[in-house]
Amino acid sequence: MKESNTASDRATDQANIYASNAEELYARISSDQALTQSLFRQALQDPSGSLERIVELGQAFDLPVTVQEVRNYIATLDDIDSKQWLVKARGGL
Asked: Do 48 and 71 touch, CB atoms closer than 8 A?
């Protein structure tokens, strides 16, 4: 029984790390206006490609995330800019 709790705890810890990574990655991207605008423009033309690019940026910043983790994190945001991005990029999300 203890073994499965340990495996479950590790899975929960890993999920928390990725959620934290998505939050940190979003903060880094948001702080770079040129990058933010570039991703927004890409999302208008290629929403899935913009999500893939965000995942690549996560790898480059040593903040690994998956597309689903990015989607999940963005869905939790409640600011005007994020909501605008979501509306425009809905096809890829």
From this structure: no
